[in-house]
From TrEMBL:
<keyword id="KW-0472">Membrane</keyword>
<keyword id="KW-0496">Mitochondrion</keyword>
<dbReference type="GO" id="GO:0006120">
    <property type="term" value="P:mitochondrial electron transport, NADH to ubiquinone"/>
</dbReference>
<comment type="similarity">
    <text>Belongs to the complex I NDUFA11 subunit family.</text>
</comment>
<dbReference type="InterPro" id="IPR039205">
    <property type="entry name" value="NDUFA11"/>
</dbReference>
<protein>
    <recommendedName>
        <fullName>NADH dehydrogenase [ubiquinone] 1 alpha subcomplex subunit 11</fullName>
    </recommendedName>
</protein>
<keyword id="KW-1133">Transmembrane helix</keyword>
<dbReference type="GO" id="GO:0045271">
    <property type="term" value="C:respiratory chain complex I"/>
</dbReference>
<dbReference type="GO" id="GO:0005743">
    <property type="term" value="C:mitochondrial inner membrane"/>
</dbReference>
<keyword id="KW-0999">Mitochondrion inner membrane</keyword>
<keyword id="KW-0830">Ubiquinone</keyword>
<keyword id="KW-0812">Transmembrane</keyword>
Length: 136
């Protein structure tokens, strides 16, 4: 089974979208479970609604990121360009803006997530290490 990073850019976009959506759903579920545990809902239905809303939102953001970056890589014919990840992050940011009905949040999320995506792609290309393990 391939990891998200092992699949070449611009190839197998459906598989990358599935993997990113699944990771987003897991992240949204864990974060919303903590939120429900810390801020107890009044009813079980309210807690379930909170969990479902966060899980679906994060799954959508992951899938939109993967699909947008893959489509961008194919259309631009530049599979290893960090701009593809910027475009994917920007598309996810626009989804956050649509979810909150706020142009300001959408614009700032677009720029922030796009920059984060491009930076992460560039860091992976340069083999940067952020977690340095101690030597024995």
């Amino acid at each position: 089974m391939y990891d998200y990073g092992e699949i070449l850019e611009g190839r197998d976009g459906i598989r990358k979208t599935w993997l990113a959506g699944r990771l987003g759903a897991f992240t949204g579920f864990v974060a919303s479970a903590y939120h429900v545990a810390l801020y107890s809902p009044e009813t079980y239905l309210e807690g379930l609604t909170r969990i479902a809303k966060s899980t679906v939102t994060m799954a959508t953001l992951g899938a939109v990121f993967a699909a947008s970056s893959c489509i961008s890589a194919e259309l631009r014919d530049a599979p290893e360009d960090p701009m593809n990840y910027f475009i994917g992050g920007c598309a996810s940011g626009m989804m956050i803006g649509a979810r909150t009905n706020s142009f300001l949040i959408g614009t700032s999320s677009c720029i922030g997530l796009g920059a984060l995506g491009a930076f992460s792609k560039f860091a992976r290309q340069q083999n940067w290490s952020f977690l340095v393990h101690p030597q024995k």
